[in-house]
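Entry for the shared binder. Reason: the reviewer on the internal report wants the predicted structure included alongside the sequence.
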Amino acid sequence: MARPKALCLEALFDVPEGARYRACTARVGTGEGLALGPAAEVFWLEAGGVCELVVTGDDRLAALRMPGAPRIEVERAGRLTEVPEKSPTILLDQDVIAVGPRRFRVHLHGDAEAESAPVPVTAVAPRAPQAPMRPPLEIRQHPPAMPARRSPTPDDPALVPVPEEPAAPVGTAPEPERKWWQFWK
């Protein structure tokens, strides 16, 4: 069952101090909920948005461009795609959504306990760089038994000599070496 998603929208354009981040909640399904306006406004439960941020039936965050809205783009890992009208475009954490010249970075935080209106976030702790996850090192107290190595025997196929190519018959001259340009003729 799909649940509302908690997220922050980070404004990537000049904004007053304390208005860069907005904590938001995306609702399940379409209709009046969280939306972005044509001048980078963040709407909640109001009409006037050109791009809705909704949770789809399979519990994923999506951007939905309204009919007649200006061009809306999503950027992920250096790639850019346009959001088509009335067709959801799935958003992931750290995606950038552009409404006209204004851009927002989406910080997806997971399921929300309850729906809430967008509120400014004034203090944000810097995120520590994360190392790629590696599986933990496994140290066994009792390793599995390994088969003993066998010593080679005279009839071991690995020790049988490989026959050499027969030598040229006695009295024949070896073929002269050809230069690379002689192969073109």
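Summary line for the report: The domain at 5-116 is CATH 2.60.200.20 (Tumour Suppressor Smad4).
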